[in-house]
Request: fold
Amino acid sequence: MPTALLSVYDKTGIVELAAGLHAAGWRIVSSGGTARAISDAGVPAIDLADLTGLPAILDHRVVTLHPKVHGGLLADPTNPTHQDDMAAHGIEAIDLVAVNLYPFSSNPSIDLIDIGGPAMVRAAAKNHAHVAVLVDPAQYATVLAEVQADGAVSAATRRSLARDAFAVIAAYDAQIATWFDE
Reply:
C-alpha cells in the first residue's frame, strides 16, 4: 500500500488530497494540526508519533526529524541493501510527501525558521525517482488526478515537483539569510 506523509502549515486543500489518496488505497500518515484536520473530516490517518514511536518534543521543534521519516523518504525500494536496512530498522517507504513551510516572511523570527519541513522536502526531492514531493496546494489536483488515473505519480511529474521543491527551499533560505543581514 503506498504511503503519503502530509505535514502542512497551510491546510488549503489538504483534506481533499488526503481523502482522494485514501480513496485510491493510500495510507495517510500525519501529525499535529494536519492530522486533526484530516481526522476531523473523517479520513483515517496514522499519527506520526505512532510511526516513529516518539511524540513531538522541544516545543514541537522536533517532530519529523527521525530515521523512520527520512529513511522512508530517502530509501530506494529497489535496492537490496536499502531493503535490508529498512527491514532491520522497521522503516517503511514513503511514496509522497506534502509539506509547506512555516511562513517565515509573515513575521520573521527564530520561531518561524522551519527545520523539519525543509529537511523532508529536500529528502523527498533528492529521491524523486521514488517519491513525489508537493510544496504548494496548487499541485494537489494534478497529482491526485494522476494517482486516480494510474495509481501512482509519473516519473516526469515527480521530477518537475522536485525542481519546484528545490526552488521553494532556495527562496525560503534566501528570506532567512536576508533577515539575518538586516
Observations:
- The helical segments are 14-23, 32-40, 48-52, 67-74, 80-89, 116-126, 140-150, 155-181.
